[in-house]
Amino acid sequence: MAGSFTVGALAVASPEANAVGAVRLTLLPKRLEVEMLRAGSYQDGFVPGALTRFVRFSVPYTAVRGFVRREGGIGLTLDPLAAAPFNRFQLAHFTDLPLEALASAHKRREAARAFSWLLPLPLAVLATVAMPLDLASGVVGRGAVGLLVLVVLAAVAKRLGAMLTLGGPVASHLMRTFERRLSQRVGLAPLASHETDPFEVPEPVAAASGLPAFARAGIATMTPSFSFPWARIGGALAAVAVCIGLFAGFRSLKSLPAEPAPEAQAGIVNAPVPEDEKLLASHGPACACERADSPLWSGGIPVLSVLPISKSREPGHALGDISPKVNKRGRGRYDFDLAIVNNAAFALNDVRVLLTFARRDEKGERRGVTDRGLFWEGELGSGRSVKWGVKAPGTEVRIDVAESRLLSEAAGASGPASREAFKKLLGARQPLVRLHAATMLAYLGDPEAIEAARGLGALSEADEMTRSRISRALAPIRVCDVKSTEGTLSACVHNSSKDVVRDLVLAEVAPSGGGRKRPIDEAILAGAGIRVAIPDFGEAPEELTIEH
Question: Are 22 and 56 in contact (CB under 8 A)?
């Protein structure tokens, strides 16, 4: 099973547990990783140890001795020879928040537990004193009533305190997900036939079947090519009928009369002459464009694209705008998604991404530096994408990746992933990932990129510029190999349409629409290209297009 699953939880006090504190559990393909922030030892009947330790270890799944639902949580037991120093946990309050946020949740749970023992005592004393004499009299009667009230209130307060700190519906959903994933890894539940990334769309046939994922894998192998004996008889009869038809066809060809030989004709014959369009076509230097020059890939295509994704749904908000929310004290906080896409034709292993968050003080110096490490263990296939949710304090962020090569620099220069891989990404939930897939299809020259970009609906001004560049890059008449020497612009203009084109205008793409324009006096044949030289044009612009 590829990929990993990470969830946070609280290790709470329980007779079967020997540790308390905030826990992060990561289900790797072959091992279970346990990280404890401010961990402390615990033994039933003794005061818990101070929560001052950070513990991190991992064990194989064969070291899982048992996990059961108990007291609104999950009891997890590991082999003491493989897990040290703690191997018994009572897990509750499951969450997807950073591990540091669980420390405060642990404090709230301990406070609720203390109140569940301290609050019933004064209430029981108050009930004993305020009890009317006609209901209970004497020391024994009032003492019995007070003891009963104390026991009932203690049980109710303990249950309410536990319910208030279990985490709610989100924690219950994460707990069930963790239980199912761990059951699959230790062999208590059937494994899925394959595991998809967050953006991969299920196959329509498999989805329409209504079967669970692990049952769909065997459909193709369970269906025989011929289910009944008479199916083979029908195939044999069909083969005999084809042979009879071929034999009859050959017999009919022999009976046809022979075609008469052509006769010579006297006089003038109209010989075919070239069309006027071909006669008027340019005889200048020929050239060809594999793809149009575009700012979308002028700096090269990276092997691994990192896409910060905004969670804002406000109209006009850029898809990649992850600006933090700043409070009145000037403290900011980030909350966004981060996706990565493998653009290369080869797989990547153990992808690491490091995010560094910080804020600036009055002097402009960095303060409160916080790191968030993201890790995809195992293989990230060609054209595949994965996503994480990121939350951290700060007003600025820097993203570093270990894989920083361009496709042209990669070993073997194997090129980008296939068109089919990027077409699969067009079904991603995040619009920014779909826009990236359309960009890569435009780089590969696939005309479906235009329709994919149009299907994104209304976009911000910055994202609309990307969509327009995709359309211009796949225009029938393209411009490439643009150079400027001493003010003279040289470019290859390629006509990929099926018609001869004339009266073309080479135009600079400018936001205000006031870019430089120069006419091209040459006609260009279908499927051909010519190199044009335009004097006094100036420096080469960022993007050129053809108007006609």
Answer: no
Q: How far apart are CA 154 and CA 340, in angstroms?
A: 51
- How many other CB atoms are there within 10 angstroms of residue 291's CB atom? 15
What are the two backbone dihedrals, phi and then psi, of residue 533, each rounded to the nearest 5 degrees? Answer: -125, 125
Alpha-carbon distance of 251 to 150, in angstroms, equals 108
Ranges of CATH 2.60.40 domains, the chain: 275-291+476-548
User: How many helical (H) and strand (E) elements, i.e. helices and strands, does the chain have?
Assistant: 13, 20
CA pair distance 220, 211, nearest whole angstrom: 13
Rg (CA), the chain: 36
The tens digit of pLDDT for each residue in 213-263 reads: 433 433 333 333 344 445 556 666 666 666 666 555 555 555 556 556 556
What's the pTM value of the predicted model, to 2 decimals?
A: 0.52
The predicted-structure confidence for 279-309, as pLDDT tens digits, reads as follows 455 566 899 999 999 999 998 999 999 999 9
Distance CA 152, CA 158 (A): 10
Phi, psi of 418 (to 5 degrees): -75, 160
For 275-291+476-548, CATH number out of 3.40.1130, 2.60.40, 1.10.10, 2.40.50 equals: 2.60.40
Would residue 248 be called left, alpha or beta, if left means φ above 0 and alpha means ψ between -120 and 50 degrees? alpha
Q: 């009890």: which residue's tokens?
A: 131
Size (the chain), residues: 548
**Cβ–Cβ < 8 Å for 318, 460:** yes
Helix (H/G/I), strand (E/B), else coil: 356:
strand
Residues 6+ apart with CB under 8 A from 400: 353, 354, 355, 356
